[in-house]
């Protein structure tokens, strides 16, 4: 049984008389600990696939399962609980709450998990320190640079040690140097914790961090690029 299994997933949107096939029969399986990149032009269906995987949107048909749990069999409340316990999110625009400090932003997922204040603060501080932000914990987002805000949002995604991380254009607003620093940090964290990462990007350079890259076009997976293992490179 695959860690994540996507079976012939379709997602249609109706706009007036027009039917938009945002996902047009996507099938793939992902193993635990894999770093997957989804690459494709704007409108190719990347965000829709991520949203369906996160249970934020329901596919029109097909099935998404995590191990032996099929999202089709969960109601909205169960999907929300599954998401809060298992999935961390990193966004292009950071999505930090502006009136909260870095420490408070990072603590949020732990509140949803019912963890007490002392433990929340300890965990949030530790991960912010690991990401080089110990002097910034009481700063609010508008007092931080873009790279620092993205590190806070990475801290928030990882603080609850979720099994799966979804990153939607995590380097989309960052310069090249900061993008590589951020990707190095993400890669180090998922490797250390054996987490599975699915990243949407349109920056081909960022796919070099991924184990596999899926190229999307018109709601379908057009091709897959697998990174050669070290054995394959040597042979
Ligand atoms: P990408 O992330 O690759 O840019 P999206 O998944 O956002 O692509 O969009 C895929 C297609 O579905 C596009 O044609 C987009 O306009 C359409 N789409 C996405 N979300 C909606 C929505 N909520 N309502 C209608 N159409 C949508
Ligand atoms: P980076 O190279 O990490 O992206 P910048 O060059 O943008 O950082 O910023 C340099 C320093 O200025 C950083 O330590 C950052 O905390 C601080 N800084 C950046 N933007 C702001 C801001 N809007 N308010 C306060 N301090 C800021």
TrEMBL record:
Residues 4-235 form the ABC transporter domain. It holds the Pfam family ABC_tran. GO terms for molecular function: ATP binding; ATP hydrolysis activity; transmembrane transporter activity. One of its GO terms (cellular component) is membrane protein complex. PROSITE patterns: ABC_TRANSPORTER_1, ABC_TRANSPORTER_2. It comes from the Bacteria. InterPro entries: AAA+_ATPase, ABC_transporter-like_ATP-bd, ABC_transporter-like_CS, MacB-like_ATP-bd, P-loop_NTPase. The keyword ATP-binding applies. SMART domains: AAA. The keyword Protease does not apply. Belongs to the ABC transporter superfamily. This is ABC transporter ATP-binding protein.
């Amino acid at each position: 049984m695959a860690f994540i299994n996507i079976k012939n997933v379709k997602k249609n949107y109706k706009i007036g008389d027009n039917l938009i096939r945002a996902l047009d029969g996507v099938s793939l399986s992902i193993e635990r600990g894999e770093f997957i990149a989804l690459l494709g032009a704007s409108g190719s269906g990347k965000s829709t696939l991520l949203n369906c995987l996160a249970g934020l949107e329901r596919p029109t048909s097909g099935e998404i399962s995590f191990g032996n749990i099929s999202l089709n069999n969960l109601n909205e409340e169960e999907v929300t609980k599954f998401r809060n316990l298992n999935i961390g999110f990193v966004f292009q625009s950071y999505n930090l709450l502006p009136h909260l400090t870095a420490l408070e932003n990072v603590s949020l997922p732990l509140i949803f998990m019912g963890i007490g204040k002392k433990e929340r603060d300890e965990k949030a501080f530790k991960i912010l320190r690991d990401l080089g932000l110990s002097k910034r914990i009481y700063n609010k987002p508008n007092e931080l640079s873009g790279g620092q805000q993205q590190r806070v949002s990475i801290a928030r995604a990882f603080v609850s040690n979720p099994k799966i991380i979804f990153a939607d254009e995590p380097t989309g607003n960052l310069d090249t140097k900061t993008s590589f620093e951020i990707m190095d940090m993400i890669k180090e964290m998922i490797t250390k914790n054996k987490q599975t990462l699915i990243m949407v990007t349109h920056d081909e350079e960022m796919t070099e961090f991924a184990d596999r890259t899926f190229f999307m076009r018109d709601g379908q997976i057009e091709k897959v690029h697998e990174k050669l293992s070290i054995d394959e490179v040597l042979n």
